[in-house]
Amino acid sequence: KYYIDKKIVDFANLETEIAARQKQIPDLTIVLRADASLTIQDLVDVLQLGNKLKVKMILATDKGA
Predict the structure, then answer these.
(1) Which of 7, 23, 50, 55 counts the most CB atoms within 10 A of its CB?
(2) Which H helix or E strand runs over 2?
(3) Residue 21 host element (H or E)
(4) How many beta carbons lie within 10 A of that of residue 32, not counting itself?
(5) What is the DSSP letter of 59?
C-alpha cells in the first residue's frame, strides 16, 4: 500500500498524485517510510517516479528495538 498524507494511493496513480502536490509545493521533499516487507523493486519503482518528476526524496529508517 502507498500513502500520501495518510491517504491510500494506488501505485498506478502515485505519479499523478505526486505531480499534483509538486504543483502546490514547488520545492517538494518526500519522506519515504517503508515497511520491512517492502521489496527492493517496489522501493526502486517509487524512487524512479521521484527522479522522473525531479522531486527530492528521503528514506526514513527505524533502528527497531
Answers:
(1) 50
(2) strand 2-4
(3) helix 11-24
(4) 15
(5) E
